[in-house]
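seq/struct pair 1
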Amino acid sequence: MDLIGLQHTLDNSAFAVLLVTMLLYWAGAAFPQIPYLKSLGTAGMVSANLAIAFLLGARWIEAGYFPLSNLYESLFFLAWGITAIHLLAENMMRSPLVGVFTAPLAMGITAFAALTLPPEMQQAEPLVPALKSNWLMMHVSIMMISYATLMVGALLAIAFLIWTKGEAITLHGSSYGTGGDRYSNAEERLRELSTQSLTLETNPASGGTATATLPQLTAPPLSPQRLSVAATLDNLSYRIIGLGFPLLTIGIIAGAVWANEAWGSYWSWDPKETWALITWLVFAAYLHARITKGWQGRKPALLAASGFVVVWICYLGVNLLGKGLHSYGWFF
């Protein structure tokens, strides 16, 4: 089998494995009493990660340069990064909930690359002069890994919002796995009210009859178990985004140095550069709110969820909707 045939086998295999893996994670979340479903899901993610790694390696051998020059290659590199970060996050959380959200994303990306892109866009072609640089490997690979990391972190924030049903709960404590002080305001209020005694009031109009006023008890919106999972999702999202943000920063700096070397200017307000800056500002605001303002729970999760959309605009939307210096080998 030639390298091209091997690539097609590997990309279709990665898609098929991720499709099955997604179903395994969904089944594991629906039937948590079946323990081997999570293990099979993890094995599927490992298999998909290796298949994509071999695909990129074969592409590297065929083309003679690092496989990040067109949309097909970058999509598979992004899917590889998402599966790798998934395995890290799943090891930290030890729950199939991570795969419930990351597996569909990785599967969708591979499906788009392997099944939707026309054959001419899947072929490796000679690099344009500006891309014939060692900066291609450093800048683009770091940017793609940062996108993958930020996407996974943002997905965990979205998972938090879905898991808590949009309730504005308050989480206390920021250490992963501490297991304590993960309660909503409603539950704390319930405890407080349960310790209050009855209040007796005398109503003169009724001849001095004493009436008892009972405090109104409000049931907590989430059980302690669900709150514990919510706190873990919130903190894990924070940690993953905290890993992706410095990678994004390094990638932007490396890109500025490369731009100065290739075009004589560190920054030209190209659409891709502008949206990379917007992405950086969104996640900088998220981390600022978490670190200095002490935000936890719904507010930072909403900010991270908006960051998920911004990352996709920066990575793909700019190239689909506009022209710029970063459009080599893409749709325009």
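seq/struct pair 2
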Amino acid sequence: MNTMGYKIKKGILYLFLIGLGLTCLLPFLLMIVNSTRSGSEIVTSFTLIPSTHLAENWSKVFEYFNLFKGMLNSLIVALPATLLTAYFSAMTAYGLAMYKFKGSGVIFGMILLFMMIPGQLGLIGFYNLCTKLHLVNSYIPLVVPAVAAPGTVFFLRQYVLSVLPPSLIEAARIDGASELYSFHRIVLPVMSPGIATMAIMAFIGSWNNYLMPMIVLNKNEKFTLPVMMATLRASTDISSNQGAIYLAVTISVIPILLVFAFFSKYIISSISAGAVKE
């Protein structure tokens, strides 16, 4: 009886999880279906059955902007920004966690303080700085600031404290390893699950960033994909462009899904390698 009851509870739990998973996938399915429908169909009805307006929506997107050029521009910004965020945040977090020096508490407190300050407050000053440095219409202001990511540093510092025993670093020092060698050959592999998690968040944030590229860039050929897609939403005939908007959004999500799938596998494969017992 106990075995039968356990199987029933397990079956109910699986059914619940399957239903929850399907519910989570429903918005993606609706987005894909709407990318094949016309604007009038989207406004007047709801269905999960694809329509026949995919080619029309595709041509309408390219009437406003080059979708592939926008994706390339976004990749040019998102990939370096993600790498800079992951590497330098990991190095900063490791230094704050493992090195005891005067003022480390003050630095960590400032990081927490900057986490609470909205980035939009410094937007005017940042634009004036870019103007004086002649960096307007350049991708540099969208990439270089990724070096300073307080939220990522905070997360990775806590992660280092939980998974990296100090004795492991001390043993490497006794064996004659330099600090940079220890960081690259020991610390980074141990931190890889946390770094991969934050890299996903950094890539998504940079890929979907709309405000900063809109402020810094003013040449159409340099617009990132979110800024280009805004031209569809800002058009006077927005009701007829609904299908084209859904199509552009659907295609823009593909790189995010690929990055998430790649790093998810990396996280799973690294969990056992990062579980070091002291």
